[in-house]
Protein 1
Amino acid sequence: MNIRILSPSTIIKEFQRIDVHPEGICLMEPKTRHYCVKISNVNIKQANVIKQEALAVGADAAVPYAVLNLEDKPVDVILMGTFKQYEKLAKKLKKQFFGLKEIGRYIIETISHYENVPSIFAISKKTIKIRDFMIMGILNITPDSFSDGGKYYGDVSLAVDRAVEMEQQGASIIDIGGESSRPGAQSIDEQQEIKRVVPVIKAVRKKVKCLISCDTSRTSVAQMAIEEGADIINDIYALRRDKKICKLVAEKKCGVVLMHMKGTPTTMQENPHYDDLIGEISEFFRERIEFALENGVKKERIIIDPGIGFGKRVIDNLEIIHRLRELTCFGLPILLGTSRKSFIGKLAGDVLPQERLAGTIASCVAGYLAGARIFRVHDVKEVNQALKIASGILDYGKNQSSWT
């Protein structure tokens, strides 16, 4: 006799291996998937109905004392159940009042995003489908970036050569930025930023076929970058620094990256603190996505970035990567930027940025397994290879014929 726990990804194969009838597999497979779903900011009536209906379908719900005491305040509910039970719950909630009719559908959508990581975004009339992952190669046109500051600053031809090299190494996006966002960095004026990045974007566009991203949060810079061929605006302020940039993104139909940052690059590492890290980041994205949608940006053009190192302690960065899949709830691709960052250096024993390749690879692979699909990195060739292996392991059942 041998007893073992089955990996979730192998359950259907094991059903087939023991010769379960195909119709039986269809009926039982949803019962094998168990999820804990958190619903935030519902009122007491809603919480009570959700709990009762969850119990009625065989699931369960954890509610705070406030629900039992019938206190008049917003509360959170944590549901526990199988996918099959959630399907039943969604049907029951659809018949309810108190604003509950759509909650069941949202639960099913959230589970779907969790299982099938969002991997599609749009640029103009073009839909970009991420096959496994995408590499965003970093091209800093700055004198003071923490890792490669000065390397391509003031030399357009050298920057172009590096862009071409990164595309050949597997980059699907070249991210060009002219203002350092390292901790403690001081802001530069718009004309300086334009002078640094626009000529490079213009020259790079003539040499590469891949997408070009402009790392900026200013409307004037973004507009000139788009005119010279940029496809994506990568805004570390998530459209907060210059609100006009949102209208520009909507008008030009380019892609946009919304990044979470606490404070500004100058202040962000001054004792950052969170009471509920993932909850606060989720609420930030909810508000920023709503702002973008209200100002004309289509949801399919948005990518989210949790902002590793931007107002986070080492422990915060680790928690974000560990719980990254929770951010799939928005149904948007997740970009992860860990490349050579200080938390890697600290964990590895205070090593210099140029000595953090192994740590970068480890963080990207962990992020990929947790749900990230776009990776902003300096070392394109090495990370690309590592993620190909990670992708092959994760999805080994899909492409076996091409490897044998």
Protein 2
Amino acid sequence: MLKFLIRRLGVMILTAFVLTFVVFFLTNLPPNLEKLARSEGSVRMTDESVQNWIIENGHGGPLLGRYTQWLGVSPGWTLTDDKGVTRGRCITIATPVETAPRFCGVLQGNWGQSTFAKDSVSSVLARSLGATGWLMFWVMMVMVPIALLIGILSGMREGSRTDRSLSIFSIASTATPEYVSGVILLAVFASVNAGISPLLVKWGWISDRTLFFGTATSAMDKITFWNFALPVATIALYGIGYISRMTRASMTEVMTQQYIRTARLKGVRFRDVVIKHALRNALIAPFTVIMLQFPWLLNGVVITELLFNYKGFGWTLVQAAGNNDIDLLLGCSVVAVLVVLVTQLISDIGYVFLNPRIRLA
């Protein structure tokens, strides 16, 4: 197990370097740097002024050198102008030239400055990840138990009416993207003129204009059932179908195994056969699917957060891309890469404990 972990950690580190370098290369293409210079300086800047701005703000020089400076494995850039004023990556108002460190990259905790939010990238990511973290938590709390229950019930009685009904629901939920289910939920539960809200108001069952809030902006300050249920349901509906289909397929395969038939012939109750014998083996494949939901949730909440105006990680990623915020885009890429790699490692480790045959191999 120790050798396996060391090998996987080595592959993770190498993968993280490669992926972050690719993103760094794409975000630091000359057109992006020129656009950044004109947005931060002036749209009427000459080409010569643009090139000077790029050099003066540390975006000049070899790409590999700038990447290592951004990582923090090489000293940060410095530049002294004609007036003798020294600027640099590690030089700020709080850390003047005399006390500035030589290395100040991502590995040292310096993620750069967001040109869009006018704040440090680490602060922006901390706020957005905190918001998305709560959204992911409640989505998983709703999605995983319901999906597993649907998959297990379908797999236990393959071909039955219950199996067909639950399978239709699973396929329909997976085939409906978030931007469709979100709009439907808004129209049904959060519309003043359509859905059930006008009827509930007419009957005097609710005092507000709508049953649920149409936006989740207020959830940034305080999460309630009424302002958070629709975004959670929008994301959970899409994931429920995928997990339940995988669970059904795995459960169906396990229920046909010889040891299940032997247990049934020995008179073991069907409930005990499912819980004690079939369920653990059937959850091996869905476990991987569930772990894959974390990177999907982190990067796939973009539509939902924009639809409900919830300022989480997805909303931040879109704003960074739309405003050409290079440092914030790089920070988002680092977070996304780390989440994917860590969840994959946890998935592999969980496989070992769920299936002893993998441990022996």
